[in-house]
Write a structure and sequence with these properties.
The protein is α+β, with helices and mostly antiparallel strands and 106 residues long. The chain has one domain: Glutaredoxin. Helices cover 44% and strands 20% of the residues. The chain has four helices and four strands. α2 packs across α4.
């Protein structure tokens, strides 16, 4: 099956469908501003809507934040890897999580 067809078909099935389920560690990175708090609430809503097996953590310690190398906050990381910087709403969060899952990145 061509790669493009495989990737486009993943959009129409639940994230991780057909794969061994594993828990994700999702980290919301920020200093506690309104956008950071909203991102955390939106991440929780998206995770629930998609039925993901995930642990959600908030990273608000400045020393830990600098280790991620972000230039815009809030940031979103999965399993310690940044997948999004800056707040963009639930659609952007869902897109980032779906792209992460489609890559099959452990």
């Amino acid at each position: 099956m061509p790669l493009a067809l495989c990737l486009s078909s993943s959009i129409h099935r639940p994230l991780g469908a057909g794969k061994v389920k594993r828990s994700m560690r999702i980290q919301v990175i920020g200093v506690g501003c309104a956008a950071c708090k909203q991102m955390e609430a939106d991440v929780r809503a998206v995770v629930s809507r998609l039925g993901l097996d995930a642990t959600i953590e908030r990273i608000d310690d400045l020393e830990q934040i600098t280790r991620f190398g972000l230039f815009a906050l809030p940031g979103l990381a999965v399993d310690g890897r940044v997948i999004s910087a800056g707040y963009g709403g639930q659609k952007r969060i869902e897109k980032a999580l779906r792209e992460w899952g489609a890559r099959g990145t452990p």
